[in-house]
Amino acid sequence: MYRLGHSMLVRLPRREVSVQLLLNEQTWLSTFHDLLIPIPTPIRLGTPSTIYPWPWSVVPMFEGECADRVPPASSEVERFAGFLAKLHQFAPQHAPQNSVRGVPLHLRQVPVEERMLRLKHKTNLISDKISHFWSRGLAAAESTECRWLHGDLHAQNVLVNEAGLFSAVIDWGDITSGDVATDLASTWSLFDQSVDRMRLLEIYNPDQATLDRTLAWAVLFGVVLVDSGLINNPRHAAQGQAILLRLSEDG
Asked: Which of 137, 149, 225, 234 has the fewest Cβ atoms nearer than 10 Å?
């Protein structure tokens, strides 16, 4: 991304594999309205040329820091719950598909449990409660609804201003349809107070099966971030650790 003036950015894929992610944003973000939190709906669409081979976008720039560095205020719980409710509407049949987000948890079971086993040997983060949340989510009834999802809704894709207010939800390349539990798991990525997390769930009001899957998706994100982050990304590791510790505090 490159700044364009005072209020815009130019967003260009660095790798060909990211082209489809940008096209997802270009195709779908303009269809969402009144989500309560701003999103980077493209202002202008760029096309491939002899100078640059892939599509690109001009998008609005939002002030703020990622939510893993500036935690959102407790007063933002209701706003975020409203954002999720407005986003999680039924998606059309031709919505983008994603093989790892919004899918039944059993499709992620083998690699996640391999990571959990590694972390048991390296850390004390995989408590009995974490294992219970994961097992219970796997056993829960699967979602039969295809609703819109951000797909990659974690603290580094949410911006917060100096006052602790959400300024934007960014990076929508993984937008897809599927199980809303995938997005609702961001509760443990964003809010560091248990009372705030419980309040968000109370407002959103998932049924028990959705809540069980949500807790399991939070375990999944925490485990993946810690396991991969311990290799070469301390920031990811810290974020994953925060998720797992918050989960152990709740429930």
From this structure: 234
Q: Quick count: other Cβ atoms within 10 Å of Cβ 236? A: 20
Please state the φ and ψ torsions of residue 178, each to the nearest 5 degrees: 155, -145
User: By the 8 A CB rule, do 43 and 8 touch?
Assistant: yes
Q: Count of alpha carbons within 13 Å of 173, Cβ hemisphere only? A: 13
* Domain 65-249 listed as CATH 3.90.1200.10: yes
- Per the DSSP assignment, residues forming a β-bridge with 16 are none
Task: Show the tokens assigned to 105.
Answer: 């948890």
Tell me what percent of the residues of the chain surpass a pLDDT of 90: 100
How many C-beta atoms surround the C-beta of residue 131 within 10 A?
14
What one-letter code names the amino acid at 49? S
